[in-house]
Amino acid sequence: MAYLKGGGNRQNIWEEGQKRMETQMLRAAIDELNKKGYLQVCDVEVEPKFELGAVLKYFKNEVPILFNKIKGSKMSVAGALFGNREIYYEMLGMKHEERIFRMMDAIANPKATKLLTKGPVMENIITRNIDIPRMFPIPTFHEKDSSSFITSGIVVLKDPETGKRHISVRRLQVNGGNEVSILVASSLANKQFFQMEEQNKPLEVAIILGYDYSLLLASQISSEVYGADKYEVDSALRGEALELVKCHSVDLEVPAYGEIVLEGIMPPNRRKEEGPFGELMGYYGGAAPHPVVEVKTVMHRNNPIFQTAFPCREEHLSNGLIREIELYTAVKNLADVQDVNVTVSGGCRLHAFVSICKKQEGAGKSAILGALASSKDIKHVVVVDDDVDIFDPDDIEWAIATRMQASKDLTIISGALGSGLEPSHSLKGVTDKVGIDATKPIGELGKSFERAVIPGYEDIDISKYFPQYKNIQKDGNAI
Ligand SMILES: Cc1cc2nc3c(=O)[nH]c(=O)nc-3n(C[C@H](O)[C@H](O)[C@H](O)COP(=O)(O)O)c2cc1C
Fold first, then answer.
1. Ligand 1 centroid to 388 CA: how many Å?
2. Closest C-alpha to ligand 1, atom 29
3. What integer pLDDT is reported at residue 427 of this predicted model?
4. In this model, does residue 118 exceed pLDDT 70?
5. How far apart are CA 23 and CA 240, in angstroms?
6. Radius of gyration in angstroms for the set of CA atoms belonging to the chain, rounded to a whole number
7. Which atom of ligand 1 is nearest to the CA of 319?
8. What is the top-level taxon of the source organism (predicted)?
9. Which residue owns the Cα nearest ligand 1 atom 15?
């Protein structure tokens, strides 16, 4: 573990009788990424303002990076861990073809969590003189951002009525001292705060930094749609009980092997201007008053690693993976769906590519209906046959170029409910939707659409012919 400052001891010494390696949360994930050769370690000093984000963006947030020297801080920062699909699958031990069913199974069959009496995250407990910008190397990403932002915190709270646990990622604007502003877009989590506010009571929250692939994915499930305990979905997904500990000053539970936990309250009737902030689709979201969190306690491991997420499309892959379940299910009701892609370039919510095995005329149009109905956020969908690779934009373009006639294959629905997270529509959230049916006709007419094939092409080993090109992929890029 030489890449981690202080050695990063991962031996579990927290539960009686247990002597095994840590398997949960960020430190275990970083170790695994390093073993698999995916981790880049930066030992050159980096400014948290702009420079760190620029390095992450350079690699499109697809290359996990551990920054060991951050100007003005002794802490390392990990970023871009969750932006690459293939790495995501591998870290969860699942194949692309089985991802949707594995996630569905975890949501349908959640497993119990395990409460430990203590855990590494409790190694340091700080209750006084909490000054968040002084304690943590929090990046500022874009020129006009109002402040530095904690962009990857998983916020934990309990429903005041039912006592059910709720977790989700929310961005936090650093206001100075022990205060951050919190942006909550989903109505359910807002409801919990509003309920407490009506009674003039604070809502307790904890913010987790330093989690792993499984917990992030579980956090992205919509509570409104599934009503599941996301910690329990995580246990099912990771194949072992998620190990939790109780917080120090609030009645909440957090992962025992997390790096940092901020505990506090959202006080009633307090709002602070939040934003502008360079957002999901690469534009600035405007400033508006939002609730705040007063941090009362900070718990952290020894030599904690601060976790960040570049506030842009790639980090939202986890959100897109969950949306693919909904898309797949919605289309399955209408057509023989083969695979779905909620694309990264479409912000993991605005664009969908769907492949079907077309058995009847009209199936392409029906698939469009299902896809657009699967989520209000999907704005454009392209439906293709199963001989098209929906993860290859060139193949999608080829299908549109050769299998689509606009007068019959283009569907436009104007003025539907959509996402407010892109600026092209004048009435925020009311948007036009487009479906493109780029499937070929079936029967006799379909015969002229047969793709020309070179037998053996898929298995060709190019290094046999050009040993010097051992690491060159089919598309000409280096591996
Ligand atoms: C990196 C990242 C940042 C996010 N930032 C926010 C945010 O600032 N506010 C928000 O409401 N949702 C944000 N989300 C999306 C929510 O975490 C996500 O929609 C979550 O599933 C909502 O769960 P819920 O429906 O149970 O509330 C973010 C997601 C990711 C992956």
1. 32
2. 169
3. 76
4. yes
5. 10
6. 24
7. 31
8. Bacteria
9. 169
Q: What is the distance in A from the centroid of ligand 1 to the CA of 219?
A: 8
251 phi/psi in degrees, rounded to 5: -85, 65
Question: Are the C-beta atoms of residues 92 and 105 closer than 8 Å to each other?
Answer: no
Q: Is the CB of 178 under 6 A from ligand 1?
A: no
Closest C-alpha to ligand 1, atom 9: 170
Contact 296, 169 (CB under 8 A): no
Q: How far apart, in whole angstroms, are the C-alpha atoms of residue 458 and residue 223? A: 42
Evaluate: CB of 400 within 6 angstroms of ligand 1.
no
Q: Given the CA of residue 317, which atom of ligand 1 is nearest to it? A: 31
- Do 104 and 116 form a contact (C-beta atoms < 8 A)? no
Count of CB atoms situated within 10 Å of the CB of 134: 11
For 165, the token pair is: 């646990």
Based on the number of CB atoms within 10 Å of its own CB, is 414 exposed (0-12), middle (13-18) or buried (19 or more)? exposed
Q: What is the DSSP letter of 439?
A: P
Determine whether the shortest distance from the Cβ of 183 to ligand 1 is under 6 A: yes
Whether 223 lines ligand 1, by a CB cut-off of 6 Å, is: yes
Ligand 1 pocket member 318 (CB < 6 A): yes
DSSP track, 161-228: TT--EEEEE--EEEEETTEEEE---SHHHHHHHHHHHHTT-PEEEEEEES--HHHHHHHTS-HHHH--
Q: How confident is the model at residue 16 (pLDDT cuts 50, 70, 90)?
A: very low
Q: Atom 12 of ligand 1 has which residue's CA nearest to it?
A: 170
Gap from CA of 14 to ligand 1 centroid (Å) = 31
Query: Using the 8-state DSSP alphabet, how is residue 251 labeled?
Result: S
Domains of the chain and any CATH numbers: 96-308 (2.30.110.10), 316-441 (3.40.1670.10)
For residue 363, give the 3-state DSSP assignment: helix
pLDDT band at 65 (very low <50, low <70, confident <90, very high): very high
CA distance 425 to 235: 41
Q: What is the pLDDT of residues 183-219, one digit of tens each?
A: 988 765 678 899 999 999 999 999 999 999 999 999 9
Please measure the distance between the N-terminal and C-terminal CA atoms of the chain and give it in whole angstroms: 25
Residue 141, SS3 per DSSP:
coil
Residue 181 to residue 270: CA distance in whole angstroms: 10
Rounded to whole angstroms, the Cα distance separating 319 from 316 reads 5
Q: Which residue's entry shows tokens 């006709």?
A: 441
